[in-house]
Structure formats: C-alpha cells, structure tokens
Design a protein that fits this description.
The protein is 32% helix and 27% strand. The chain contains 15 helices and 25 strands. The strands form seven sheets. The chain has a five-stranded parallel β-sheet with strand order 4-3-2-8-20, with helices on one face. The protein has a five-stranded antiparallel β-sheet with strand order 21-22-25-24-23, with helices on both faces. The structure holds flavin-adenine dinucleotide. Flavin-adenine dinucleotide (FAD) binds next to helix 1, strand 3, helix 2, helix 3 and strand 5. Flavin-adenine dinucleotide binds next to helix 1, strand 3, helix 2, helix 3 and strand 5.
Amino acid sequence: MPEARFDLIIIGAGPAGHIAAERAGALGKKVLVAEKAHLGGVCTNQGCIPTKTLLYSAKLYAQARHSEAFGVSVEGARYDIAKAMAWKTKTIETIRKGIAYQFRTHGVELATGSARIVGRAGGLTTVEVDGKQYSAPNVMIATGSAPVVLPIPGAERAMGSTEALEISTLPKSIVVIGGGYIGMEFASYFTQVGAKVSVVEMLPEVVPLLDPAIARVLRGSLPDADFHLGAKVLAIEPDPANKAGHVVRFSKDGKEQSIAAEAVLMSVGRKPIVDGIGLESVGVEFDRKGIRVDDRMRTNVPGIWAAGDVNARSMLAHSASRMAEVAVADMFAGDAAQAGNAPSAQVMRYNAIPWVVYTYPEVAGAGMSEEQAKAAGRTVTTAMLDHRANGRFVAESDRTRGMTKVVVDAATGVLLGVQMIGPYSSEMIAGVAAMIEAELRVKDIREIVFPHPTVSEAIRDTIWSLKE
Ligand SMILES: Cc1cc2nc3c(=O)[nH]c(=O)nc-3n(C[C@H](O)[C@H](O)[C@H](O)COP(=O)(O)OP(=O)(O)OC[C@H]3O[C@@H](n4cnc5c(N)ncnc54)[C@H](O)[C@@H]3O)c2cc1C
C-alpha cells in the first residue's frame, strides 16, 4: 500500500526535476521528488557547474600570465589544483543548498533513494523509493543521462568527465577522445593549466553544427592542442615508455597512428537513463535513444511525462528545465487557467535554444547554422564579421579572436540563427535567442539600440553588414 499520495512525483532532481518541483510547488501542489544522489543532478554535481568553476579558475590563471600588454605584471602565478577543486566543491554545495531552499519554500518533499515505477491503476501511478511506496496521478521521469563508453580495448584506462573533475594532480599531457562541446571545454581547461592536449575526433570538425569558419578559429585559439579530425580510436594501451602512461591508437586516412600521454579522457556523448526505473511495468515507450515524448513531454501513458536528457530531444540543462515547465503547465493546465494564467497552450520549442561552449574564447549560438538552414530548404543570406572593429573587444583582447555570423531568411528577412566566438558570447546569446524566438527581421534589429562600448554591438554591426 502506498505510504502517501501526492499530486506529482518526480524521479530525479536535476535541472528538469528540481524546476518541475519548484513550478508545481508554486502552484500549491503536493510534490515528492525522488533522488538517489544529490540535488541538482549531473548539471550541478558533475556537469555544468563544476566544469565552469574549473574553467573560470583556469581563465584567471591564463589572464594572470598574459596581462603584460594591459600594464599588469604578475610574478610567480601558480595554478593550485587542490585549491581550485576546493572552490569547485564549495560552489557545488552552494548551488545544492539553493535548491534545498527552493524545495522548502515551495513545500516540496524529498525521498532519498533509487526510485522505480511499480504500477498504475485507477489513474494513480505508484513509485517505490527505498522500499516505500508513494502514489500520484502525475509522474515526471527526469532520470537524466550517463556517459557513453566506446566499446574498444582498453576503454577502462580512460577517465570520464566525472573522474576528470576529481583529479588531484594535473597531467603533463592528455588525449581527449571526442571533440564535442564537453571534450573541447576540457581541452581548453587543460591547455590553460599547462598540459599538452591532443583531441581525437571521428567527425571532420569539432563541435557538431558549429560553422566551419568559427570551428577553425576555435581550434586555432587553443595553441597547445593538436587536433586529429576524421580519426577513429581503435584502442587504449599501456605506454611501454611510461608505466603510468597510455597510448591511444587511432586510424586516420587509412593509416594507423598513436599518441602517448599521461592521461586519457573519453567524452563521446551521453545516453538517456531508461533502465531500472520500471518503464516496462506501465508500458512507457522508449528505446536506446530515450523515452518517446510529444511536444508537451507526454509519454504514451496518460499521467506520465518525461523531461530532460532522458528523452534526448535536447541534452542541455536549460532545455531540461524548460521541458519541465512545459510538462508542469500541461499537467496542471486546468488549475492554472482558473487562476488566470492559462498555460495549457505551452509546447516545447527547440528552434531558438541557445548553446554555449565555455572554451577560452567562448563560443555560443542559437537557431540554425547556415548548413542546417540550407538542409531545411531555406534560401538564406549570411554575414560574418570579425570583432576587430569592436571597441570593447579591442580594448580587452590582445590574444583572443572574436567573430559573429548571422543567418537570415532571404525571402522574409527573419533572423534564423547566430553563432559567435569571443569574450562574453555566453552572456550575449540569450538576447539573440529572444530575437529568434520573437521572429525579428533584419529591419527590426537594425532599429534596436545596443549599449556602447560592448561586444554585443557586434551583433548589430553584423546585421548591418548584410547585403540587401
Ligand atoms: C561535463 C558536463 C558538462 C556539461 N555542461 C553543460 C553546460 O555547460 N550547459 C548545459 O546546458 N548543459 C551541460 N551539461 C549537460 C547537463 O548536465 C544536462 O543536460 C542536464 O544535467 C540534464 O538535466 P536532467 O534533469 O535531465 O538530468 P540530470 O541532471 O542527469 O539529473 C538526473 C537526476 O536523476 C537522478 N536519478 C537517476 N535515476 C534515478 C532513480 N532511479 N531514482 C532516483 N534518482 C534517479 C540522478 O541521480 C540525477 O541526479 C553538461 C554535462 C556534462 C556531463
């Protein structure tokens, strides 16, 4: 017999789970969150937050060593990995406390332990956590994702991103297998703290969907990294010349090559967590690519939603949180409509989700790349502008590159996509996403005033540089 009945039970307290809990709690709903590890999920504990904390410390270190041009000389700058890790841990704890505070504020209850669905009857789904059963008419699955491990000999010799965030000594050399955004962030981090980095990527270019010109600038901005593109990793073996080291063997252009390094990081993607959570017990449809959902995050089973990485529609923290809001709006649509805030029309839109690669310099984008727009049958006009004429950029950058590219629908003049590289890109891209979401046209954006001097003016200048 279930111990208690809730309006909503959520499995997983990552960006999907905890935001759903807070939104439903704010509507006055009785919410239970089941979490087997820590509040905040992968994002807070092994993903977004720890990586960005370490990347910030590495950026400070790089700036300390390279600030002579600005009249600042720092002697004896030193990177202390133990202190950087301690700051990372403190940051994670602060974020976790913030989520716990939000739970208290919204009356959200927490059940610590591994949860699984055990059945659904009479419009109620029963979820078991640590031997106790709870029931609710609404259940949201937000179990997230786990790293993919390549099925190659010696794969166990490589660290995953989680282990890389716990190292106590810095390797002098590292091979990063996978040049996606996570691999590139680690490559950027390790180059900045003094390691020799080699990135081995199977695709012809790093970071899928990145404009080729921006990708080239990004690779060129990591001077202590070499890139092996179009290269398939075959095995990781012990290094005969260094007992603690490794050799990564790969094939490229039909030839076999190898790189020796003190450490290897494997970062080749993530897969949704769909096993062991009782999906079969209630007939929720899923496959290896995740739980199948519609644009309101509904699964095929009424009363069960799935949001975040577990449905693999967009594996980013802010996508997970937005999906959670859409799901909550859908499940409590009637109530909110009565409260004068009818959210029932909400659906998940993926066309303007911003993304960021927190390398140094940063890369960010929103909307379609030129390649995507053309593949979707759009006729586009594009413009690309170097930031060298941007006052703020020039004042603050002696070593970094910056550029912005815009993609516009040729027929309507509507902005379809923007990609940028350079300082502040991560902070500017939300504004771009809003323009795309609002379907602003070139002529609308030309009428917007941007503050001077800011790097954001590069967006406006690139728009102005479009040929009519
Ligand atoms: C190294 C790295 C860096 C990243 N950087 C960024 C970034 O900068 N920006 C960005 O947007 N995204 C980033 N991501 C991706 C981001 O972390 C995920 O998209 C996001 O965490 C997904 O949120 P979620 O709520 O779906 O799942 P998760 O955050 O994975 O949370 C799922 C939670 O469910 C819990 N859980 C699983 N199964 C059960 C169960 N049976 N019972 C109870 N609890 C369970 C887990 O313990 C976990 O806490 C990064 C990921 C990694 C690995």
